[in-house]
């Protein structure tokens, strides 16, 4: 009973996660092609996709090194927050690079519904006409 419910929820969570990952990678790859940033295939590689984001945003790549700090006790939280801030800044600049309002990136801060809106806006930035 309860085990089946937990397992079912886990399967749904994994499937939704894979769908979001594929959608985000396709959108980032489309944005990279739109901004003529190479190599666009980095959108599919975890951590390397952050490097691609920094290139599209025309900013430094070094904040990616903060990911190493995630596993350091106490400092892990600080590294995670700093990395999250840089990701929002990169996303802000990415939206501006494709002639969309940069403030769209701020939807990433809002849990659940904000992320749904962010994913829709990411698709508009990737495949919308302007």
Can you walk through the features of this model?
The chain is mainly α and 130 residues long. The chain is built from four helices and no strands. The protein is globular and about 50 Å long. The termini are far apart. The model has no long low-confidence stretch (mean pLDDT 94).
SSE topology:
Elements: H1 2-34, H2 48-56, H3 75-97, H4 113-127
Please count the helical segments: 4
Q: C-alpha Rg, in Å?
A: 16 Å
Q: Which strand-content bin applies to the residues?
A: under 5%
Rounded average pLDDT: 94
Main sheet attributes: strand count, strand direction, barrel closure: none
* Spans where pLDDT lies below 50 across 5 or more residues: none
Name the shape in a single word. globular
Number of strands: 0
Helix content: 55-70%
Distance between the termini: 52 Å
Secondary structure category? mainly alpha
Features:
single chain, 130 residues, 4 helices
How would you summarize this macromolecular structure in one to three sentences?
The protein is mainly α. The chain has four helices and no strands.
